[in-house]
Amino acid sequence: MEVLPCSRVAHIERKKKPYNSNIGFYTKRNALRVAEVWMDDYKSHVYIAWNLPLESPGIDIGDVSERKALRKSLKCKNFQWYLDHVYPEMRRYNNTIAYGELRNSKAKDVCLDQGPLENHTAILYPCHGWGPQCVMCLLKVGK
After folding, report:
1. Which InterPro entries does the UniProt entry name for this protein (predicted)?
2. What does residue 31 show for φ and ψ, rounded to 5 degrees?
3. What is the pLDDT of residues 22-58, one digit of tens each?
4. Domain extent listing, the chain
């Protein structure tokens, strides 16, 4: 393991995974557990990143009360402090009321996409779900 003074996050993984090949489920579950314990008002960002509904995502994260108690007993700073001092350039999706792919109602396999152009002009493109360029957010401010 290498510790880098300017690094933000680290994760050590086992060479051989002790669970089945459905790594996506375990990765999502762990991401939601981390969000619940550490991210405070920003935990919705994890749901957005995994394209999961904010309410009832369909993944049982188990009991995280011991983890929350540990965070409190260690007097860890809140996630807002982390954003302000460690990662101020993080894109924030505050006041999000809807997110996901925007599909054409007449051609279900076509989505709105940022497109390849430098100014990200919206285009219709085959739905692929491969990256953030096809995920749209509707904010309370109407954007």
Report:
1. Nucleotide-diphossugar_trans, Ricin_B-like_lectins
2. -65, -40
3. 667 888 899 899 999 999 988 888 887 777 877 788 8
4. 1-93, 95-143
